[in-house]
Amino acid sequence: MSEQQAKLSEKEMKTYRVQGFTCANCAAKFENNVKALPGVQDAKVNFGASKITVWGTTTIEELEKAGAFENLKIREDKEKAVKREPFWKQKENMKVYISAVLLVISWFLGKQYGEEHIFVTIGYAASILIGGYSLFIKGFKNLVRLQFDMNTLMTVAILGAAAIGEWGEGATVVILFAISEALERYSMDKARQSIESLMDIAPKEALIRRGNEEMMVHVDDIQVGDIMIVKPGQKLAMDGIIIKGTSTLNQAAITGESVPVAKTVGDEVFAGTLNEEGLLEVKVTKRVEDTTLSKIIHLVEEAQAERAPSQAFVDRFAKYYTPAIIIFALLLAIIPPLFMGADWSEWIYRGLAVLVVGCPCALVISTPVSIVTAIGNAAKNGVLIKGGIYLEEAGSLKVIAFDKTGTLTKGVPSVTDVVTYNGNENELMTITAAIEKGSQHPLASAIIRKAEENGLNFNDVSVEEFQSITGKGVKAKVNNKMYYVGSPGLFEELLPNGIQSEIKEQITTLQTQGKTVMALGTEKEILALIAVADEIRESSKEVIRKLHQVGIEKTVMLTGDNQRTAEAIGKQVGVSDIKADLLPEDKLNFIKELRDKYQSVAMVGDGVNDAPALAAATVGVAMGGAGTDTALETADIALMSDDLSKLPYTIKLSRKALAIIKQNITFSLGIKALALLLIVPGWLTLWLAIFADMGATLIVTLNSMRLLKVKE
């Protein structure tokens, strides 16, 4: 958002949906027209999402007047879209059919009575007028204002063809141009459907209980705190927390995970997910515009408005390229007849062919269709890419850095080994859990979880004189006996002769495996060793392997853990580099170093304490976007499921998108260059010129659509 827009946003800002955009140029023109309306301070069109945001005051009637050149229809953002007719039935395509029929009839008449016959000329003229009526209106208006776009080029070319008696060619150009515009509309509609399908995921009303009454309520009227009743087989309309019932929920629409997830009382649930088996009562926690699904839709639409670097290049190129083509065509039509005595009508014809082939349709559409398609596909698969720039950046990544805790590992420590020296394991674990119940340490929660899993009733044990020994552990009396729980260092100080050598060896062995070791003992002896480790996610090893397979040169694990623990986990996962003993600011500095060395670096974290490093990386990737707002806000790419398995797919999609954008730009420019070379021997006819232009637009569009096919 620009500074100007930020200042204005306190005033009235409103977003409208626009129906009828055909091309990026028309969208830019509409934006300028709206900016010129009285009462409007600023306006911004999002072509990919078919929206316009207006700062200031205006009415729908005025906006439609500003879009009258394209017959645009405007509606409030929240209003339901009018269901469009099937593509072949759309009104704007009807005139193409009539025009084509007239062209064919005129062609047959020409074969019968000769091209010069009055009926033939009238037939072609009618075909030109019906098929090109709206094109001419736009073209003439632009000509008067000296604005040169595709419509201006086509208008001049068609009128020129008629003026030198090439009525048939003029009519063919009109038809082919109308077809190419229709195909462009169709392709953009297809690309936009990925967003529209997201919008239809969540139901528009839900069964709500207020007091003792149950009623169907529209989502706009559901309040935070309402109780939503969700039957098996129904989709959730709102985000909330389960207060009654247990079920499995299919969260594919939000997180892209195809395997349903078990949910019970106290668990968070999201709008758009499908309740598979149990009856649930859910307390609504967010209003409809704040749900995770709404945020996804909003972010995807914003992403499609962001200009990718290649698109900015194309726009700059087209700005100078179009006037240059017009000047070149003019010189080509005038110079040979004036100075070399060549035939006027032949060279005017060649000049007109240059105008047609010079039309930058395919070039202008080469990037936006690819980006809209790729971002839409990613959103359907549970990956949020926040703009074309990040899509392109992810496609050129060489290095990916991972935060260890909560990213490569589950982030929840659990007990892996219990070694006893004196006494029964269950008894000693009961005492340890009873003492640790009073501690706030994360390792304490691992011991308590283990005791609960083993069914030990440590809550019945009475603990007295509990005291924390800062940085080393805790002590407390159980059954009138003083016990200590803490690090090996605590017992080195505590025991008269230090720790026995065989126990020391055991501790070293466990630490080499990347485990944190705690001991339970008295002032005289160690009774048990308890090893705790952060478990590696099942998917981590496979994800790292796939990333190296798709061409990522280097994977780095960043952690605050000690070197020994870090190396044990790093080796298990298969990363190519390990950096241990890092504070948050060290992570930030390390990412900056990587950027200096490799230019393009991604940082993957859970988005909470990794925010500075995520921001410093070329691309910040956050996991678990469905549960944390921080992840959605700070990251450039959010993996909606709390899982890395979507990362290789994201890199694959980005690389494919980057390759397709480059192919499209090269192909569009190549076709133009080839067609211009055909002018020299005079082989470039008008209909061949428009055919080359239309063919290029169609091929570029179909090539972009291949991004819908990219799967995991």
UniProtKB/TrEMBL annotation:
InterPro entries: ATPase_P-typ_cyto_dom_N (IPR023299), ATPase_P-typ_P_site (IPR018303), ATPase_P-typ_TM_dom_sf (IPR023298), ATPase_P-typ_transduc_dom_A_sf (IPR008250), ATPase_P-type_domA (IPR059000), Cation_Transport_ATPase_IB (IPR051014), HAD-like_sf (IPR036412), HAD_sf (IPR023214). It catalyses: Cd(2+)(in) + ATP + H2O = Cd(2+)(out) + ADP + phosphate + H(+). Its main location: membrane. It holds the Pfam family E1-E2_ATPase. SUPFAM superfamilies: Calcium ATPase, transduction domain A (SSF81653), Calcium ATPase, transmembrane domain M (SSF81665), HAD-like (SSF56784), HMA, heavy metal-associated domain (SSF55008). It is a multi-pass membrane protein. Keywords: ATP-binding, Cadmium, Cell membrane, Ion transport, Membrane, Metal-binding, Nucleotide-binding, Phosphoprotein, Translocase, Transmembrane, Transmembrane helix, Transport. The keyword Membrane applies. Its EC number is 7.2.2.21. It comes from the Bacteria. Gene3D superfamilies: 3.30.70.100, Calcium-transporting ATPase, cytoplasmic domain N (3.40.1110.10), Calcium-transporting ATPase, cytoplasmic transduction domain A (2.70.150.10), HAD superfamily/HAD-like (3.40.50.1000). The chain crosses the membrane at residues 117-136, 156-179, 320-340, 352-376, 665-684. GO terms for molecular function: ATP binding; ATP hydrolysis activity; metal ion binding; P-type cadmium transporter activity. Belongs to the cation transport ATPase (P-type) (TC 3.A.3) family. Type IB subfamily. This is Cd(2+)-exporting ATPase. It comes from Parageobacillus thermantarcticus.
